[in-house]
Amino acid sequence: MTIAEVGKKYNLTPDTLRYYERIGLISNVPRTENGIRNYDDKTCKTIEFIKCMRDAGVEIGSLIKYINLFEQGKGTAKKRKQLLEEQREKLLEKQKNINDTINKLNYKLELYEEIVAGKRKDFTEIEE
Asked: How much is the pLDDT for 100?
């Protein structure tokens, strides 16, 4: 697949894909005889993983560490597992914070719904 096709498939710009390659997130991208990138299934799976992790908020530095460990082979499995566990904990904390915020917004929206419906005249809870 060309860089444009991969970009379209994963909703990434060609500049982003080149950047990921430059910083070591994507390595050994196959090329045609003319030097044009020709992404294979293996590279696309890596991009899919990176995209998933980035969409969830995983930092690029953590992904670079993970990819570097992965490329070193099976001997790094324990370190990779630990890194992924740390990222999962960070994501679970973010998820908790997001859920808390959604609950607060739902509460506020219920109060506003009561005001709009004329069932509530007291605005003090909304301002808090």
From this structure: 97
In degrees, to the nearest 5, what angle opens at C-alpha 52 toward C-alphas 20 and 5?
Answer: 60
- The answer to whether residues 46 and 21 touch, using CB atoms and an 8 Å cutoff, is no
- Say if CB 104 and CB 98 are below 8 A apart: no
Cβ atoms 24, 62 nearer than 8 A = no
Is the separation of the CB atoms in 43 and 26 below 8 Å?
Answer: yes
Closest CA to 77 of 85, 88, 69: 69
Length of the chain in terms of residues written: 128
Residue 13 is which amino acid? T
Neighbouring C-alpha atoms within 13 Å toward the C-beta of 56: 19
pLDDT at 128: 59
- Classify 106 as helix, strand or coil: helix
pLDDT digits (tens, 9 = 90+) for 48-98: 999 999 999 999 999 999 999 999 999 999 999 999 999 999 999 999 999
First to last CA, the chain: 54
Greatest alpha-carbon span in the chain: 74
